[in-house]
Amino acid sequence: AHSPLSSSFPSDGETLDVSPAEIVMEFKSPAKLIKVELTKSKDKQEKSLLGGLFGGDGESVPLGKSFLMLMNKRQVIPMPSLGEGDYSLSWRAMGEDGHVIKGELTFKVGGK
Strand, helix or coil at 11? Predict the structure, then answer.
């Protein structure tokens, strides 16, 4: 049996007033995160000005590695202070059965 994500904070598509201190992922059965990447989307103005020169959809946000490779149903990823904008968290995890599962969460900070 694979270990799909059962819930997360923030939830996919959620808009938060302030930067989250952490991202919490709850899996249906124990899994370990093997890769996590957080990207901040460029705003529309930046995309049109810089998109042709640099390509890429956004700016990578550095995360620590202390949370990787720990087998748990509940995974907690400490967050740096995030500015206003749209974020995408791409993750890859390995379930107890050795199967790799992956997904993506998107959320927004400061959606007035």
Answer: coil
